[in-house]
Amino acid sequence: MIGRWWSRTDVFLHAYLVMVLGCIYFLFNFVEGISFAERAGESTLFRGAWLLLYILLMLHIAVDRTRFGLLLLHSHLYLAFVAFAAVSLALSADPAGSSIKFAMYVLTTMFSAWVVISCPVDRLVDTLFRIGIVVLIVHVLLFPVIGSEWNYDALNRPTVLGTQAYAGVFGHKNLAGAFFGLMVLICFVRMLAGPRRQFGWSLLLMGCHFVALAAAGSAGPLISMLTTVAVTFGLLLVVLGRRGAASIYWLGLASFALVVLVVPSDYLYALVGRSGNLTGRSFLWSVWPHFFWQHPWLGYGFSGFFNELPNSPANELTSMAPWNTEFGSFENSYLDAFLQFGLLGGALYVLLLARALWNSIVFTFERRGMYWLAPFAMLLFVVIASANDSSQLLHNYFGCVLVFWCYFGPEARLQAAPRRAFTRLRASEA
C-alpha cells in the first residue's frame, strides 16, 4: 500500500513543485544549522533531496517513455538549444565544474516536458493553488518566531506597507516576492475563469498573497505581478469578444504606459522604495557588454562566468565594482543567457521563449480546460520579472519550469499526425 501511494504521480508532482518554488529551502539549512537567510538551499541534505527527485524523474520518464520521446522528437528548437549550450559548456574554462549544474538544468527542462504529458493545466493550477495555501499559513505562523530574527534587507528599506521586509520561510525577499506574486496570479486566474462558487475564496486568498508579497519588500515581483494582471485582464476581454470594452481598456492601458515613460524614473522608483541604480543592477548592466564581447559567439558556457576558479571572469567584475561585493549573476535572465550561450545559443533561447509565449497565447484563445488563462499569466510574469533577476536560468527554480512547460505544451501541442498519436496514447491509458 505504501509503495503504491509513493509511486503516485501526485506525490512526485507536489514534491518537485515544492522544491522549485523554493518554499522549503530554509528547512534543509535549519536542520544542518546553516543560516538560511544567507545560504538558502546550500546544505548537503538539500542536494540529496534533489538527487532523489532526479532519480524519480528518470523513473517516471521511463514509464512514459513513448509519449515523452514523441514530444521530445518534435521539439527541434529545444534540441538545437541544448546542443549549442553543450558546445558552449565544452569550450568553457570550467567544463567539469559546470557540467553538473548544466545536467541539473536539463533535467529540470525535462521535468517540464514530463508535466506536459502527465498533468493537464487545470490539475497543475489546482496543485499550485493548494501549495500556496499551505505555504501562506506556515509563512504567517512563523512571523512571531523569525520575523524579528533576520534582516531580510541589508539596506533596511521599508516595504510599500511601511514595514521591514519579511521573507519568512524563504530566507530571501526576492524568493518570497516571486512566490507570492505567482500565487496572486493563480488566484486571479481562478477568480476569472473558474466556477462562481470559488470566486470568493480565490479573491480572499489573492488578497492574502498580495499582502505577503508587499510585506516581502521585493519591488521587482510586485511590479511584474501588477503588470501581468493588467495585461492578462486585457487579453481576457479580447478572448471573450468584448470588443468595445477591450478597445477602451487597451487604450487606457497604453495611455498609462505613455505617462510612465514620460514621468522621470526617480519618481517611479520612489513609489516602491527604490532608487535609479536599481540596487546595483545599473552597474552590472553597464559593464555587461565588456564581458560579452570577449566571447560573443558561444559565450562562457552554462555557469561558466560565475565559477570558483582563481581566474574566473567574475573576479574582474568584482574588481570593477564601486563596492567590494561578489556577484552570482548579472541580475537579468536575458543578459545571462547571451553571456552563457553566446549569440548563437542565446538567439535560440530567445526563439524558444517566443515559441513558449506563442503556445500560451494559442492555448488561451482555444479556451481548453477551466484555467485557460493560467499558462499565459504565469509565463508573462516570469518573462517580465526576469528583466531584473536570473530566474529563467536557475536549474532549481520555477521560472525555468514554466518557460519550458509553455514551450513543450502546455498540453503537448504537436503537429497533426503526432497529436493524434499522442491523443490515442492518452486515451488508451485512461
UniProtKB/TrEMBL annotation:
Keywords: Ligase, Membrane, Transmembrane, Transmembrane helix. Residues 208-350 form the O-antigen ligase-related domain. GO terms for molecular function: ligase activity. Signal peptide: none annotated. The keyword Iron does not apply. InterPro entries: O-antigen_ligase-rel_domated, WaaL-like. It holds the Pfam family Wzy_C. This is O-antigen ligase family protein. GO terms for cellular component: membrane. It is a multi-pass membrane protein. The keyword Ribosomal protein does not apply. Its main location: membrane. The chain crosses the membrane at residues 12-31, 43-63, 70-90, 102-121, 128-147, 175-192, 199-216, 222-241, 248-270, 337-358, 370-387, 393-410. It is found in: Membrane.
